[in-house]
C-alpha cells in the first residue's frame, strides 16, 4: 500500500528537516574550526571524522524521538557491502557531512544533507552549508529556496555555452582514472569550463541556483544526492541517469542539465564510468 502524505504533513516534515539541519549545522560549524580526528573507510580517499559519527548518532535519536515509525538510512550506520533495505515507507536519508574531505582540510563547502522519501520518491530535501550560512530547502511541488529566496536554474540552451560540474574523485581504479582525464579534456575544450566543489549536495544546489548549467557525478550513494536532487528538480533542473533514463536513488550516479537538451548533450559527450557498488 502506498504512503499518503497530506499537504500539512509535508510542511511539517520540511520544518522538522530544517530544525534538524540547523542543529546539525551548529555541531558541524563548531567542529570545523577545531583539530579533527580522522580515520578512513576502506581507502585513504574516503575519510570519516568523529563529527560525522556524532552528528548522525544525534540525528537518528532525534528522528526516533519525533517519528518512531519512520525509517532511516545514514552514511555512517549503513552496511556499504550489502544492498540497502529501501522501502515505500517514509524514510529519512541523511549524510551528516557531505564533503568530509573539505571538512578535514578546512574548505568551507561542507554540507549536512537530509531527504525524506515516500514510495521511494523524494518529497522533502534540505541541505545546510553551516560554514557559509546557506540553507537550501525544498518540498515536492513547492519549489526550492536558499535562505528564503526562491531558486530558478539557468536557461542556457547549448552545452558549449555551459559551466559543467564534474567531480574527479570517482572510484580510483586505473580505468576510471583514465576516464576522468578523458572527460576533463572534453569538458574544458568543449564548454565554458569545469568546476568541482567536493560534495554532491553542493553540486546539486549550484545547479538549482544557476551557478552551473550541467553536472554529472558517479560513485555516489543515495545520501549524497537525495536532498539535492529534489532541490534541483524543484528549481527547474532536468535530472536523469547519465545513460539517459530516469535517475535511480540507488543507482550511484546522476546527471543534470539546466535543460533536457543540455543534459542529453553532456550524456553524449562523456565516457561513462564503470561503477562497482552493492
Model description:
The protein is α+β, with helices and mostly antiparallel strands and 278 residues long. The chain folds into two domains: 139 residues, Fructose-1,6-Bisphosphatase, subunit A, domain 1 (Fructose-1,6-Bisphosphatase, Chain A, domain 1); 111 residues, D-Maltodextrin-Binding Protein, domain 2. 35% of the residues lie in helices and 24% in strands. It is built from seven helices and 14 strands. It has a seven-stranded mixed sheet with strand order 3-4-5-6-7-8-9, sandwiched between helices. α1 packs antiparallel against α2 and α5 runs parallel beside α6. The model has no long low-confidence stretch (mean pLDDT 92).
Amino acid at each position: 500500500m502506498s504512503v499518503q502524505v497530506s499537504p500539512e504533513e509535508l510542511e511539517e516534515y520540511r520544518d522538522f528537516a530544517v530544525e534538524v539541519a540547523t542543529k546539525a549545522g551548529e555541531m558541524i560549524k563548531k567542529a570545523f574550526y577545531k583539530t579533527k580526528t580522522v580515520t578512513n573507510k576502506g581507502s585513504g580517499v574516503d575519510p570519516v571524522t568523529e563529527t560525522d559519527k556524532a552528528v548522525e548518532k544525534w540525528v537518528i535519536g532525534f528522528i526516533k524521538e519525533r517519528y518512531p515509525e519512520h525509517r532511516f538510512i545514514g552514511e555512517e550506520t549503513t552496511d556499504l557491502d550489502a544492498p540497502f533495505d529501501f522501502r515505500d515507507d517514509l524514510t529519512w536519508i541523511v549524510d551528516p557531512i557531505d564533503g568530509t574531505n573539505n571538512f578535514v582540510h578546512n574548505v568551507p563547502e561542507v554540507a549536512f544533507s537530509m531527504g525524506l522519501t515516500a514510495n521511494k520518491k523524494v518529497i522533502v530535501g534540505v541541505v545546510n552549508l553551516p560554514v557559509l550560512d546557506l540553507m537550501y530547502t525544498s518540498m515536492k511541488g513547492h519549489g526550492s529556496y536558499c535562505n528564503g529566496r526562491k531558486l530558478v536554474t539557468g536557461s542556457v540552451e547549448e552545452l558549449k555555452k555551459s559551466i559543467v560540474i564534474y567531480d574527479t574523485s570517482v572510484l580510483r581504479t586505473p580505468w576510471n582514472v583514465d576516464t576522468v582525464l578523458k572527460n576533463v579534456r572534453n569538458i574544458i575544450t568543449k564548454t565554458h569550463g569545469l568546476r568541482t566543489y567536493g560534495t554532491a549536495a553542493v553540486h546539486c544546489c549550484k545547479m538549482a541556483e544557476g551557478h552551473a548549467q550541467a553536472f554529472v557525478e558517479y560513485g555516489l550513494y543515495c545520501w549524497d544526492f537525495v536532498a539535492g536532487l529534489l532541490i534541483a528538480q524543484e528549481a527547474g533542473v532536468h535530472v536523469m541517469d547519465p545513460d539517459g533514463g530516469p535517475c535511480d536513488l540507488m543507482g550511484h550516479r546522476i546527471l543534470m542539465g539546466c535543460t533536457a537538451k543540455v543534459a542529453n548533450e553532456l550524456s553524449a559527450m562523456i565516457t561513462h564510468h564503470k561503477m562497482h557498488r552493492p
